[in-house]
Amino acid sequence: MHRVTLRYWAGARAAAGVETEQVEASSLADALAAAKAARADDPGFARVVDVCSLLSSGRAVHRSRLGEPLAGDTEVELLPPFAGG
């Protein structure tokens, strides 16, 4: 298990109610699942997370790679779609 820092931007931050949070996970899929589980009573949060673009170390993370094992602690930025761009 590794420490994953989730950094929320714009509407994702509003949905999460925090700027960042840390979870323990072995993959990014597990990290996102943990964040969703912590807000199981708020299905809106899960909808926002599911449409976010994900960046790790400044690089886009394709959703097909979320289940890959993490090599160490990491930070992931969640960026919701922005109007006009």
From TrEMBL:
InterPro entries: Beta-grasp_dom_sf (IPR012675), Mopterin_synth/thiamin_S_b (IPR016155). It comes from the Bacteria. This is MoaD/ThiS family protein. It comes from Desertihabitans brevis.
